[in-house]
Design goal:
Layout (H helix, E strand, L loop, with lengths): L2 H5 L15 H11 L3 E5 L5 E6 H10 L2 H6 L2 H4 L7 E2 L4 H11 L3 E6 L2 E7 H24 L1
Parallel strand pairs: 3-4
Antiparallel strand pairs: 1-2, 4-5
Helix pairs in contact: 6-7
C-alpha cells in the first residue's frame, strides 16, 4: 500500500501556516482542526518547515509562556524535515517515522506539498489492510 492509496479515500483540506504567524496563532489552528502539526509554507507555497506540538512544548520549556506565544512560527519550527512522496510504501513510511521519531510526515508531489501523513493515518491504513486480508481469508476458508 502506498501513501496515495490512503489519501484518496480521505480528501482532507490541508492546513498550513506562514512562518510570519505567531505560535499562538498556530496553537489556535492546531486546536481548531484537532491536528498535531502544521506544515509551514512561504508566500510562494513552498514547504519551509513544520511546527508540531513538540516544537511548541520545547519552546515553552525554554522561555516564558507569554514570550513563547508571541514568537514567530519561523523561529520555532523544525526545518530539518523528513518528507515523502505519494508513491512511498507505507512500510517504508513506518520505518522512517520510527527511526526518525517523527509523528507527522509531509508528502510532496514535485515541489508542491500535497498531504500530511500522521502516524495515526499509517496505523489506521495498516489496520484496514490487515482486516481486509483476514476477511478474505475467512471467506476463502468458508468456501
Amino acid at each position: 500500500m502506498k501513501i496515495r492509496d490512503i489519501r484518496k479515500n480521505e480528501p482532507i483540506e490541508l492546513q498550513t501556516i506562514s512562518p510570519d504567524k505567531t505560535v499562538h496563532q498556530a496553537i489556535q489552528q492546531l486546536c481548531k482542526f484537532n491536528i498535531g502539526a502544521l506544515p509551514v509554507v512561504d508566500a510562494a507555497g513552498a514547504l519551509v518547515g513544520i511546527l508540531s506540538e513538540r516544537d511548541v512544548l520545547r519552546l515553552c520549556s525554554r522561555k516564558d509562556c507569554q514570550v513563547s506565544l508571541a514568537t514567530r512560527v519561523g523561529d520555532a519550527m523544525t526545518v530539518d524535515l523528513v518528507i515523502g512522496v505519494l508513491d512511498d510504501d507505507l512500510e517504508y513510511v513506518m520505518q522512517v517515522m520510527t527511526e526518525k521519531r517523527v509523528r507527522h510526515f509531509p508528502v510532496l508531489e514535485g515541489r508542491r506539498l500535497v498531504a500530511m501523513i500522521s502516524i495515526g493515518d499509517v496505523v489506521k491504513a495498516q489496520y484496514h489492510q490487515k482486516e481486509t486480508e483476514a476477511r478474505f481469508l475467512r471467506d476463502y476458508m468458508a468456501g
